[in-house]
Design brief:
- The structure holds two protein chains of two kinds.
- By secondary structure, chain A is mainly alpha-helical.
- Chain A has a domain of 39 residues: Histone, subunit A (Orthogonal Bundle).
- Chain A has a two-stranded antiparallel sheet.
- In chain A, β1 and β2 form a beta hairpin.
- Chain A starts with 6 loop residues before the first helix and ends in a 7-residue tail after the last strand.
- An eleven-stranded mixed β-sheet of chain B has the order 1-3-2-4-6-5-10-11-9-7-8, with helices on both faces.
- Chain B has 15 helices and eleven strands.
- Chain B has a domain of 245 residues: Amidase signature (AS) enzymes, CATH 3.90.1300.10.
- In chain B, α2 runs antiparallel to α3, α7 runs antiparallel to α15 and α8 crosses α15.
- Chain B is α/β, with parallel strands linked by helices.
- The chains are: A mainly alpha, B alpha/beta.
- At the A-B interface, α1 and α2 of A face α9, α10, α11, α12 and α13 of B.
Chain lengths: 97, 485
């Protein structure tokens, strides 16, 4: 059987996932992902015509609670783990040129 | 008498009769940690000062006669539940410095029940693994054989209980991460029904599968821990508003007249012969208790692993998108722009297994592949759940092995991800169906490694599960051994 996923596709998926790989890692991942995806092929044997996909084991209709104002974390605690913060903001590298 | 060796219920009666104080117990547990932790490495972070201060407070309460079910009992927490003011890493470089500003609900509930926290236990990075070898903070060793893995992903929590480095602990189970390490370390571990225990403050891996549960030294302690942590939480949208029974009431009810299902698909070639023998003995034990074992079929069993290893990575790829170097945790320096920072941060911050699962999940959800993978897997999942629903019309509970083999050697499966995934072959179905499962010791191999049996029951039937596990534990009369550390 042919490859399920090529090195180019690995590159594309890595970009979607915001990950970078070295050439060596890419080769290793391509072969490992192929093995894993081949294993997934077994599902094609199952007849699922008309079967509703299941998302959660226990289906709750809605999970509402009363709209009551409660204390929230506040700026200081919310920013307490930030790699970089300034004033009440998270700081990131330049986004807009 | 060495206090660290005792169970919650034994320590509770000592506390009530003045035979021990909480400070004595905490002292004993930390003396044991001092003695063996260098070899086992069950913990990422110890909370020693906090534990002693809390023990002193608990002793005041005990003197005043205010004794709750876990008052003064030292409990370890998997490093995946948020602890306000204490490092919470999820075993990952990307959260190496994360100090949560709030407590998980399970932490709040345990504290309300009087528990004292000893520390945060080691785990596979983001709970992705079956051996606790993928932690950024080093491996945990199996207390029964230091050359072997303790199972995973909650390997630290299992090893800590087995090695008496705590009295009980908390783990999380997405595809077997409580039950498999419990079996491999010779302790009791329960994965409750999806929705039974609030996951507020649990770092998410696969949200439709994740559940929190206890590791304990016996089934009675499991019931005590479940009493403390189960229940509805309005902050968690999958938490189910249902009454929680007193699980300790199920301990001595017995299982006379029960039907116990033995699914033929779980007794396949490839199971270690000693595991198989232990399972056959377990069946005899169950029948000796007045129950009848009946063969049942769960026809979609062979597809469970493939379904799991699509759904879990897909959900993980979405959940782990939040680690971007902006709000908390590790950030890679010297990046040229925002996109570059995301990529450098995530590539340096995540380990190989986490990246592998993010890649599988991103691929399975990407345009053009969604129907073939995620949708197909979700449909087969519905059939797997239906298998269980039908099986439970024929039996009260199901008995299966937990792990096809006893604990394997460190490093043995690290180069072959697919082989590692096969470790979970008997445990993932439970999470896919959302039902509860419990792992109970059922013997040892000739080489002295623990073997575990798994009992499964219908949704919200943790009580009957405790009932059968307690009856089995009492009647099987498994030799009391301790790891030779």
């Amino acid at each position: 059987m042919g490859l399920k996923i090529t090195k180019d596709e690995v590159d594309y998926v890595a970009h979607l996932a915001r990950l970078d790989f070295s050439e060596a890692e890419k080769s290793k991942f391509t072969s490992q992902l192929n093995d894993i995806l081949m294993y997934m092929e077994t599902l094609s044997q199952v007849d699922t015509a008309g079967v509703e996909p299941m998302s959660h084991a226990i289906s709750l209709q809605n999970a509402f609670r009363d709209d009551i104002v409660k204390d929230s974390l506040g700026h200081d605690l919310s920013l307490s783990n930030a790699p970089e913060a300034r004033g009440p903001f998270f700081r990131v590298p330049k986004v807009i040129e | 008498m060495i206090l660290s060796r005792l169970t919650i219920h034994e320590l509770q009666s000592l506390i009530r009769t003045g035979g021990a104080t909480s400070s004595d117990i905490v002292q004993s547990v930390f003396a044991r940690i001092e003695e063996v932790e260098g070899r086992v490495h069950a913990y990422i972070t110890l909370m020693k000062d906090h534990a002693f201060a809390e023990a002193a407070r608990a002793d005041q309460d005990i003197k005043a006669g205010k004794i709750k079910p876990l008052t003064g009992i030292p409990i370890a927490l998997k490093d995946i539940v948020c602890t306000k003011g204490f490092l919470t890493t999820c075993g990952s470089h990307i959260l190496y410095n994360y100090v949560p500003p709030y407590d998980a609900m399970v932490v709040q509930k345990l504290r309300e029940a009087g528990a004292i926290f000893t520390g945060k236990t080691n785990m596979d990075e983001f709970a992705m693994g079956s051996s606790t070898e993928t932690s950024y903070f080093g491996i945990t060793r199996n207390p029964w054989d230091l050359d072997r893995i303790p199972g995973g992903s909650s390997g630290g929590s299992a090893a800590a209980v087995a090695a008496d480095e705590c009295i009980a602990s908390i783990g999380s189970d997405t595809g077997g991460s409580i039950r498999q390490p419990a079996a491999l370390c010779g302790v009791v571990g329960m994965k409750p029904t999806y929705g039974r225990v609030s996951r507020f403050g649990l770092i998410a891996y696969a949200s439709s599968l994740d559940q929190i549960g206890p590791f304990t030294k016996d089934v009675e302690d499991c019931a005590i821990m479940m009493n403390a942590i189960a229940g509805y939480d309005s902050q968690e949208s999958t938490s189910v508003p249902m009454n929680v029974p007193d699980y300790t009431e199920f301990i001595s009810r017995g299982i006379d007249g029960w039907k116990v299902g033995i699914p033929k698909e779980y007794f396949i070639e490839g199971i270690d012969p000693e595991v198989n023998e232990a399972m056959q003995r377990a069946i005899t034990t169950i029948e000796g208790l007045g129950a009848t074992c009946v063969e049942i079929s769960l026809p979609h069993t062979e597809y469970c692993l493939a379904v799991y290893y699509i759904i879990a990575p897909a959900e993980a790829s979405s959940n782990l998108a939040r680690y971007d170097g902006v709000k908390y945790g590790f950030r890679s320096q010297d990046s040229i722009d925002l996109l570059d920072m995301y990529k450098k941060t995530r590539s340096a911050g995540f380990g190989a297994e986490v990246k592998r699962r993010i890649m599988i999940g991103t691929y399975a959800l990407s345009s053009g592949y969604y129907d073939a993978y995620y949708k197909k897997a979700s449909q087969v999942r519905a059939l797997i759940k239906r298998d269980f629903t039908e099986a439970f019309t024929l039996c009260n509970a199901i008995l299966t092995p937990i792990s096809p083999t006893p604990a394997f050697k460190i490093g043995e499966r690290m180069d072959n991800p697919l082989q590692m995934y096969l470790s979970d072959i008997f445990t993932v179905s439970t999470n896919l169906a959302g039902i509860p499962g419990i792992s109970v010791p059922c013997g040892f191999t000739k080489g002295g490694l623990p073997i575990g049996a798994q009992f499964l029951a219908g949704h919200f039937e943790e009580g009957p599960l405790i009932q059968i596990a307690a009856a089995f534990e009492k009647y099987a009369n498994i030799e009391k051994r301790r790891p030779n550390l």
